[in-house]
Amino acid sequence: MTVSPHFAFHQGVLHAENVPLTTLAERFGTPLYVYSKKALHDAWGAYQQAATGRNVLVCYGMKANSNLAVLNEFRKLGSGFDIVSGGELARVLAIGGDAGKVVFSGVGKQEWEMRAALKAGVKCFNVESEPELERLAQVAQDMGKVAPVSLRVNPDVDAQTHPYISTGLKENKFGIAIEDAPGVYQRAKQYGSLDIVGVDCHIGSQITEVSPYLDALDKLLVLIKHLAGLGVNIRHLDLGGGIGIRYTDETPLTPKMLLDKVFEKLDAQGFGHLQIVLEPGRSLVGNAGVLLTRIEYLKHTDAKNFAIVDAAMNDLIRPTLYDAWHSVEQVVTPVGGQVQTYDIVGPICESGDWLARNRSLALAQGDVLAIMSAGAYAFTMASQYNTRPRAAEVMVDNDTVTVVRPREKLESLFEHEVVLD
Ligand SMILES: Cc1ncc(COP(=O)(O)O)c(C=O)c1O
Ligand SMILES: N[C@@H](CCCC[NH3+])C(=O)O
Questions:
Q1: What is the 3-state composition of the chain as percent helix, strand, coil, each rounded to the nearest 5?
Q2: Across residues 101-129, what is the average pLDDT?
Q3: Domain boundary among 253, 280, 307
Q4: Pocket of ligand 2, beta carbon within 6 A
Q5: Neighbours of 415 (CB within 10 A)
Q6: Does the structure show a pLDDT above 90 at 234?
Q7: What mean pLDDT do residues 306-317 have?
Q8: Mean per-residue pLDDT for 196-221?
Q9: By Cβ atoms counted within 10 A, which residue in 29, 107, 204, 402 is the most buried?
Q10: Residues paired with residue 195 on neighbouring β-strands, in sequence order
Q11: Chosen domain end from 229, 264, 280
Q12: What is the share, in percent, of the chain residues with pLDDT greater than 70?
């Protein structure tokens, strides 16, 4: 993404909604994550519009951005949540979220997490292996509860995305191989403490084409028909796999493109009654955020030009982890200045500490840059490496700004550590 309706230039200055990013950098310092509330609402609106008249539950994949203010916007809009840990469940409960709209995914659910989810009353557990099924049945039985269960089926479909974020291939750790699923469902049926409610799959992230979803859906519908013959009746189908966003020049599918095709298939095959659950993360928040950073130094070597900024891989790991592209905008459009090719790098002592490479920009020391598309998998993947406090997060709503998480204080980074005599 370069600029969007929510992050646009007015008189040479990049704004978040109606607030100049220069003002935010001055007022709150850098690095700084800036979110647009309207962008969150508009992204949600695209799903809501696509689902009109159909039985669809959108469970926000909160791993993308789990700030309570972000979660609460989606809660108010009617979203459910896709969680992958007891910690994420605690966040949902902290904002008064409805556990009945929570699906619990993840390959490594621990007993305490199962207990917490059963106590809260989640919509379902997306079970990813037989040992997990057994553990869940036992935990539920011990608590005198019945656990609602979907099996996360691995459909062996290529989502045509980065290998690190593809999840629905045989070699990925996720889910139960589709050919094994009927047997596991039959086992699940035998437990009085389990209630089979659905079928789940998740094929990957940053998906830009509709075809991988349809390939997965075809396989799941064959499975659901087969299960009906075994007396296992499914109430919902969770079609996980994240719609991609525009980082540069991608033209990803839209929620409407996806849901129109999905319902066409479901109706044609007599499955129009099934509830569809979606678990979007990135497409709801990715382009609703930017990361502001200030240039500390420009450094010119024989080999390269570096812009050394105050944000680093600990604030945004995606470039170095996935070789991901994030657009870089100068918050104030430069007048004149020499355009040169720069690597934008952070202060961390790793050669992999870069945010962008080979960008043609006319930079000056002290300039503020906006690393675009930083609403998803930026803060949630941030660390404190090199004893760097995690940056503050602010939410812009029209011309109002709220700090939704203050910058961490240095002392808080080591306040629980113990010095031995
Ligand atoms: C189980 C599950 N649900 C939801 C998501 C969110 O996906 P995305 O951010 O691609 O929409 C992911 C991440 O890929 C996931 O693994
Ligand atoms: N964290 C990844 C996506 C993984 C999604 C979780 N299954 C990213 O930044 O693109």
A1: 35, 25, 40
A2: 97
A3: 280
A4: 63, 165, 205-206, 318, 377
A5: 8
A6: yes
A7: 98
A8: 94
A9: 204
A10: 148
A11: 280
A12: 97
pLDDT band at 172 (very low <50, low <70, confident <90, very high): confident
pLDDT of 168 reads 63
Q: How far apart are CA 203 and CA 163, in angstroms?
A: 11
**Nearest ligand to residue 380 Cα:** 2
Q: Is 82 in the pocket of ligand 1 (CB under 6 A)?
A: yes
Per cent of the chain over pLDDT 90 is 93
If asked whether residues 232 and 325 sit together in one domain, one would say no
Whether the CB-CB separation of 207 and 286 falls below 8 Å is answered with no
pLDDT of 162 reads 67
Question: CA torsion angle for 95, 96, 100, 103 (degrees, to 10)?
Answer: 10
Q: What are phi and psi of 104, to 5 degrees?
A: -110, 105
Which ligand 2 atom is at minimum distance from the Cα of 167?
7
**Atom of ligand 2 at shortest distance to CA of 377?**
9
| pLDDT exceeds 90 at position 155 | no
Q: What is the pLDDT of residue 3?
A: 72
Distance 151 CA to ligand 1 centre (A): 16
Is 349 known to be catalytic? yes
What Cα–Cα distance (Å) separates residue 134 from each residue in 43, 102, 144?
38, 21, 15
Per DSSP bridges, beta strands 305-309 and 32-36 are: unpaired
- Cis amide prior to 31 (ω within 30 degrees): yes
Q: Are residues 148 and 250 in the same domain?
A: yes
Note down the domain range covering 183: 105-280
